[in-house]
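[audit] Reproducing an earlier prediction to check determinism. Same input, same settings, fresh worker. If the tokens differ from the archived copy the diff job will pick it up downstream; this log only records the rerun itself.
[audit] input (140 residues):
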Amino acid sequence: MTSVAVACAVLLAGAAAAVDGPARVNCNQKTFPNLPGQNAVTLARQANGSYTATIEAYAGPKTRKSLKCRFDADPMVFACVTANASWGLFGKKLDERSIDGDGKAKDDHVYKIEAIKTPAGEPRVEQELRFPLDACKAER
């Protein structure tokens, strides 16, 4: 009986380690209310632990499946890559300072998400999306 309990504990611990990221990450910002789904990125964890990414930017959604993702303590900071490393999605938090037209310093805090073709070879940014911090949410 104790060997069965130990085997179950080992299996459950392995399953918990495999699923360490959030169940869903979503950033959504609509700048034109009459066009649905503009500037949206969604990562959704699948049953096998991989993620599916859906990106919408002023057009129909693009979907990538079977992504392996790693997350920071802030789930909006992540790196996701396909199994053959031909495509990746990378999220960062940026704290930027700029000068406005009146010469005053302006601080911006945003999440930047980049879709990159061949991140392991000669990377090329296919798409770059920026979201205010309050436009992004993660579900555990």
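[audit] rerun output stored. Observation attached for the diff report: Residues 2-18 form the longest helix (17 residues).
[audit] end
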